[in-house]
Amino acid sequence: MVHGLTKMGPTKTIKTLLMVNQKDGFDCPGCAWPDPEHRTTFEFCENGAKAVADEAMPARVNAAFFEQHSISELSAWPDYKLNRAGRLAEPMHLAEGSNHYSPISWSDAITLVSDRLNGMSSPDRGVFYTSGRTSNEAAFLYQAFVRSTGTNNLPDCSNMCHESSGKGLGQTIGIGKGTVTLEDFNRSDVIVVIGQNPGTNHPRMLTALRDAKHNGASIIHVNPLPEAGLMAFKHPQDYMKANFRSTSLADLHLPVRIGGDAALLKGLMKVVLRNGRLDRSFIDEQTTGFDQLKGNLAQTDWDDIIRDSGLEREHIERAGNMLANSTATIACWAMGLTQHRNGVAVIQEVVNLLLMGGHVGRPGAGFCPVRGHSNVQGDRTVGIWEAPTDAFLDGLELGLGFPMPRHHGHDVVRSIQAMKDGLVDVFFCMGGNFISAAPDTTTTADAMRNVPLTVQVSTKLNRSHLVTGKEALILPCLGRTEVDSQPSGHQFVTVENSMGVVHRSEGKLKPASKDIRSEPWIVAELAHSTVGDQHLQWRHLVEDYDRVRDLMEGSLSGFDDYNSRVRQPNGFSLPNLPRDERRFATSDNKAHFTSHPLPDIDVEEDQFVLMTLRSHDQYNTTIYGLHDRYRGIHGNRRVLMMNADDMVERGWKSRTKVDITSHFEGEQRTARDWLVVPYEIPRGNLAAYFPEANSLVPLNSTADQSNTPTSKWIVVTVNGHGESLTEEEE
Length: 730
Ligand code: SF4
Description:
- By secondary structure, the protein is of the alpha/beta class.
- It folds into three domains: 2-157 and 377-570, Rossmann fold, CATH 3.40.50; 163-369, Dimethylsulfoxide Reductase, domain 2 (3-Layer(aba) Sandwich), CATH 3.40.228.10; 608-724, Barwin-like endoglucanases, CATH 2.40.40.
- 34% of the residues lie in helices and 18% in strands.
- It has 28 helices and 30 strands.
- Strands 4-3-14-13-12-5 form a six-stranded mixed sheet, sandwiched between helices. It has a six-stranded mixed barrel with strand order 21-29-26-28-27-30. It has a five-stranded parallel sheet with strand order 8-7-6-10-11, with helices on both faces.
- β15 (484-486) and β16 (489-491) form a beta hairpin.
- 58% of the residues are buried.
- The mean pLDDT is 96.
- Iron/sulfur cluster binds at residues 28, 30-31, 33, 44-45, 47-48, 202-204.
């Protein structure tokens, strides 16, 4: 309510929060946790309320604002102050060498971009980024436009988050998505939550875990940190029923060392194997590679497992027995697995563990990579993909009627390298806050400043409007909560949640300004101006988004009868062969066990392993405030969480000032002036918030195969200044 009342006032707060995640309302622009079939009156969490209140805040960032505030002044503002500046209200242009944005008309802005794109010596000198808030319709038109220019340079935020999941699952079960439904949580025996902090990043998942517990499930929580959300949970609405009891969620917390997940998973598999609770018929008939895996496990020594996981054998045995006795197991994960050098391999260890018991394609069992952005999965499904398969491009050619570029494009890391090398003329961002989300902040900033023109389609002010190309444009767009009116009337868009359900979202609030436009409109205008209407009638398409959906139906598999099915109250589920038919679209139509060596997670004597994470007062790179209340950290974000014994060993008190230096292939990156605080984290491990700690993540430190930045594995040293601040001084 604090966020609602301070940003929207009482009436708008009630009105808006009653529409979030409702069947005829709008989808929360927060994470991608699915909505239950039966919605509660208030179907949102605290972070959902913050995300919505942010979109509906009255403050405006317009020509007068930019006249008053220069780029250099704004660059000194902390991120949460930038975020609170308000909604972007009109198109703005930053001329080369200027320190102030100035207003520009939509038509001049569109012409400026299309002239630059048409002036490029090669279509591959254009890079088109997408953040996961973009709707299916906008994303589909965007990829069609970009591909009509001749490039697949379509990096997106999933390159930095669940790309390892897509690769790991795609290679083993034939689909790069999860295989469970929300209902499966109520039919599960054991739910493993590994490398994920749902309490902050997918809060309504706690309701599903609570209900699963009430239905008899056990929960195993694997995380270096004892995250509050999985310790005990009270559903805010229980208070209204005078029910003050909380539900302790995790039956077992395994505080694994950073990078120790693979060792733990091999330990769990050894216990399951020893107990002989295998789904033999499934393994024999529908999988390959089991014997190699058995050999690999036999060669994996328990001492190595204990050392690398940092856990006691009895705890691994206990968890292993819970899994061995389970008839239906779900595994949920997020960045704690994906943002590692071995991200793809460790996810495949999760696959190995579940395949052993046949925990796929039956009630209460399966894989659940939980997406952190409301439509990041949808964007990939409809074509935001720098490395599409030929089959996917064949479908687009059939539906769109023009040839597709076949050479793969740049993902996020390769885009930054290309910008750094002067190979990019136009960097276009559909949403997001690229400079803050990307790794290696200083290198990425230099790379962006090396680009002749950067364009940001955005709702609110952020740091990517201040760290720009030589010339820059801001194109303000409608938020998810706002009415999208086109010639045929009010439009709705569609999104896809973590469980592959496509459903509609219709904005209800009056747009923040008459000078902002919808994302589909912006893409259509740009395409019309850049490539013309030889292939598609871009403006005609966005007069009525049903026309865009008809085009999608003809170009994508699984979107049959799209316009009528998405009008059903709960939308529809996209096909998912492992979930729906327990079949696998792999090269041999079998699920694949894989065998991977234990990763080397040892670091030198005085080194630590750092992981970046979100506070409870942020959503991705959007900083709402300075209070990470679930961890008891308030008022400061430049905080380094360290094990108390590691601090004592160095004679450091709480709030000792330190510098952090990362080490990678002989390179060093230093971030200064952090306050170290004691926290319950394994020895030798550290945690700090992003985006502040992203400057320590080397650009080329990425996961094998998925090229995802290793934000959860940063080798660092920490040097104390010898002084510590009091709370008052801090
Ligand atoms: S759980 Fe995610 S989608 Fe649901 S209200 Fe919260 S932030 Fe929004």
